[in-house]
What we know:
This protein is mainly alpha-helical and 80 residues long. The chain contains 5 helices and no strands. It has helices at 2-6, 11-26, 31-43, 57-65, 68-78. The longest helix has 16 residues, at 11-26. The two termini are 17 Å apart.
Amino acid sequence: MAEAQKDLARAPMMRKVEENWQEGFKRASPADVVAATIQKALDARTPKAQYLCGHRAASAVIQRLLPTNQWDSIVRWQMT
């Protein structure tokens, strides 16, 4: 990411990406919630391809319901 921040054209976007990552780490679900979801997947007789986990799982549901171009617009908006 440091290299991309030196690129004047991409630097503002990459700074925003880094800020969002840092905020995401602060708001991440607790490890015990994630561990319980992993354990559920391991114990499942027929495991699913994906499991929703934690308080941010709702955005994953919304992402699946929206057309890709609308979801991409939301992501771009959050990065500016």
